[in-house]
Design a protein that fits this description.
Layout: H1 2-10, H2 28-38, H3 46-56, E1 59-60, H4 66-71, H5 77-90, H6 107-113, E2 117-118, H7 129-134, E3 137-149, H8 152-159, E4 166-176, E5 180-188, E6 205-215, E7 218-228, E8 258-260, E9 270-279, E10 282-300, E11 306-313, H9 321-325, E12 330-342, E13 346-361, E14 375-389, E15 392-401, E16 406-417, E17 420-429, E18 450-459, E19 465-476, E20 487-501, E21 504-518, E22 529-544, E23 549-562, E24 568-579, E25 586-597, E26 604-605, E27 608-609, E28 615-616, E29 619-620, E30 623-634, E31 647-659, H10 664-669, E32 678-689
Parallel strand pairs: 1-2
Antiparallel strand pairs: 3-4, 3-32, 4-5, 5-6, 6-7, 7-8, 7-9, 9-10, 10-11, 10-12, 12-13, 13-14, 14-15, 15-16, 16-17, 17-18, 18-19, 19-20, 20-21, 21-22, 22-23, 23-24, 24-25, 25-30, 26-29, 27-28, 30-31, 31-32
């Protein structure tokens, strides 16, 4: 019966037939919108590493667990739940095209998933520790980067740096399937010293980790550096997590509680030990961490010069004497635990995190900061849940902090029709609620001082067309940075995508966001709060000439209006060419980009590919012409008739330059000189031994 059904699917034109493996499809729109909201990105490339590894070692869908599927970050919980139920009822999959029969799985989702999964009839076995240590893949990465900026502001800043302008990162990683991973990362930022001065041991930042899975009752074991992801991020979420974007269904936080950490970011991780135990439907996680934080310390003369923390520094830069003075000056002891009961359709869990700082935190004098964490001890507790009923999935988290201030997030994912999906999120986070290392689905960068409701709809009316729409209405009950009164706002996005064939993809997008900000040039006294509206329209085209060459172009405009005054405008245009010959050792890409805006307020963002595991999303403003060239060459070529070699070497080179098209005198008069005459280079070598 099942065989005849699968044969029927295969004969329907092979809709999701396997294709040439593409580059890692990080959601560029999500990253661009994240950079715009937070004016910067964290150095977390763990998902990119995971997907690149799975291209070479695909996940077997016939043995994949719920955690394996969640860690892909490509599926919603409703899709995962439906897949597991389908597999339990009908047995192992016989062909990849059978995925089309899983409820809530559309062709677009399957195509994104195909490069990282496989279908196998082999029985799962438990590998012994010796096999894990002998038969894994070893990777050594060395990256050298340098930025040359001839603007006067940049030259003045670099004069005070103690080290060279070269940035260096090295990373060694050993990985056996998804069962064992260990490695070390060393990172030196531009301007930091290297094997001299205050950094006689070489790199400014070192990271070590050992991570094992499926050791009997031990589902996960983390030693060294790791991240913790609990619930919906109200009390703890240290991995990358996106917020609002054109992927209107990507609203839920999902993943295993413990994850290995081997990125170059110097703040958002724990250092110690963590373990997850599994027995039947019960899962228990516990972790402990002792590490140093970078902070601004202030002496209180009224309390016998007692030092307290005025702020925690998250940048990781130690280039000047002032930055070195703030380096690793406070110890943070973190402990936590999570208990989860789960079956194929639902789960409930309780979570707790506690912190002890060697010096007390003390809020600033600003009125908006009066509810910030105060003291040496802090704690957060939460309850989270999820339930799947037919084609509907509900989930949420309710949290309190040490002072019993409350926060909550509740969400719904529903497949209303094979062509229509719905997402809803309600959040209510009190102005007094505070947490560390958290990241929830909110308008604010941190889950604090916010009430809001988000609704998104994804419609696929006919083959090749897709309409994504969302609207978010939010309010901030208390004051914020640069907002001197309780305020609110709204945001909506409409994106229409057309994919007539596998060679062409076009989308056009309109987005509006209205929020309140302090008036820029107020009268004497308190700055009044005025509405600021940002309108954005983008059209993007990708055209694949053949299996070797792909062209991409984008046109984008922005209008920013403050208090109904004359709007500031911005314009961006770029065109890309990507050349990747089949069975050839090289890959080449280039971009020519022009930007012109009235000021920094009307800046624009565009994702830029550089070397593997690395990207850039700089703010682009004023008048800039920017070109980017990337070259990747695999020294150990492999043809279709040759077996894979034991050792391979990937050489990557990236160069990007921003040029001000007018005279140097005109450029010097501009305010945003960071964008001018900037030259970025990256050189990277990756050695892989299988």
């Amino acid at each position: 019966m099942k065989w005849s059904f699968v044969i029927w699917l295969v004969t329907q034109g092979l809709v999701v037939a396997a294709q040439e493996k593409p580059a890692i499809p990080l959601n560029e729109q999500q990253l661009e919108m994240q950079a715009e909201r937070e004016e910067g990105m964290t150095e977390d490339d763990s998902q990119w590493q995971q997907l690149e590894y799975l291209q070479k070692h695909p996940l077997d869908l016939n043995t994949a667990t719920e955690i394996d599927l969640e860690n892909l970050r490509l599926l919603t919980d409703l899709q995962i739940s439906n897949f597991l139920l389908y597999r339990n009822l009908l047995g192992p999959l016989l062909h990849v095209n059978e995925l089309q029969a899983v409820p809530a799985w559309d062709v677009g989702t399957i195509k994104r998933l195909l490069p990282y999964v496989t279908i196998s009839d082999q029985k799962s076995i438990i590998e012994k520790l010796g096999e894990r240590l002998r038969h894994g893949e070893q990777t050594l990465l060395l990256r050298v980067a340098k930025t040359v900026n001839t603007s006067s502001d940049a030259l003045k800043a670099t004069d005070s740096y103690l080290g060279s302008a070269v940035a260096v990162m090295t990373r060694y990683k050993y990985k056996y399937k998804n069962l064992l991973q260990l490695g070390m990362t060393g990172d030196k930022d531009a301007g930091e010293q290297f094997f001299k001065g205050t950094q006689k041991n070489g790199f400014d930042f070192y990271s070590f980790h050992l991570f094992a899975r499926n050791l009997g009752r031990i589902q996960s074991l983390a030693l060294g550096d790791f991240t913790v992801e609990l619930g919906q991020g109200l009390i703890q979420w240290q991995g990358m997590a996106f917020k609002k974007s054109a992927d209107v269904l990507g609203i839920k936080r999902q993943g295993a509680p413990l994850q290995p950490y081997n990125s170059a970011g110097e703040y958002n991780f724990h250092r110690g030990v963590g373990v997850t135990l599994q027995k039947n439907q019960m899962q228990f996680t516990a972790f402990g961490s002792i590490r140093k934080l970078n902070t601004n310390l202030v002496s209180d003369s009224f309390l016998n010069s007692l030092e307290y923390i005025s702020s925690i520094i998250t940048t990781g830069y130690h280039r000047t004497l002032a930055e070195l003075n703030d380096r690793n000056n406070v110890q943070c002891l973190t402990t936590g635990a999570a208990l989860k009961l789960a079956n194929n359709k639902s789960h409930v869990g309780i979570n707790a995190v506690q912190y002890h700082l060697s010096k007390p935190l003390q809020p600033g004098v600003a009125v908006y900061d009066q509810f910030a964490i105060n003291g040496q001890y802090w704690s957060n507790y939460s309850f989270d849940y999820s339930y799947t009923f037919h084609n509907m999935h509900v989930y949420g988290e309710v949290a309190v902090d040490k002072l019993l201030n409350r926060a909550m997030i509740h969400g719904l994912l529903a497949s209303l029709d094979p062509k229509v999906d719905l997402a809803i999120v309600y959040r209510n986070i009190g102005p007094r609620y505070q947490s560390l290392f958290s990241n929830a689905f909110t308008e604010n960068s941190l889950p604090v001082n916010e009430k809001g409701c988000y609704a998104g709809l994804s419609i696929r009316p006919v083959v090749g067309w897709k309409l994504d729409v969302y609207m978010d209405v939010f309010r901030f009950p208390w004051l914020k940075y640069q907002v001197n009164a309780p305020s609110g706002g709204h945001e909506y996005l409409v994106q229409l995508a057309y994919t007539p064939s596998k060679y062409v993809e076009i989308y056009t997008r309109f987005r509006q966001e209205t929020k309140s900000m302090n008036e820029v040039d107020p009268l004497p006294g308190i700055s009044p709060v005025v509405p600021v509206t940002r309108l954005n329209w983008r059209t993007h085209i990708s055209y694949r000439l053949n299996k070797t060459v792909e062209l991409r172009s984008r046109v984008e405009t922005v209008w920013v209006t403050r208090n109904k005054k004359q709007p500031e405008t911005g314009f961006l245009f770029y065109t890309d060419v990507h050349v990747k010959p089949a069975f050839k050792p090289f890959f080449f890409s280039a971009r020519a980009q022009y930007v012109e805006t009235d000021s920094y307020n009307s800046r624009l963002y565009a994702f830029e590919n550089t070397v593997l595991y690395n990207f850039s999303i700089p703010p682009l403003f004023d008048k800039v012409f920017r070109y980017i060239v990337n070259v990747n060459y695999r020294l150990t070529n492999r043809s279709a008739m040759q077996p894979p070699k034991k050792i391979s070497c990937l050489f990557s080179f990236s160069v990007a330059q921003s040029l001000f098209p007018s005279t140097k005198e005109e450029a010097a008069m501009k305010s945003g000189t960071e964008a001018y005459n900037r030259f970025d280079t990256k050189l990277q070598v990756i050695l892989t031994r299988r």
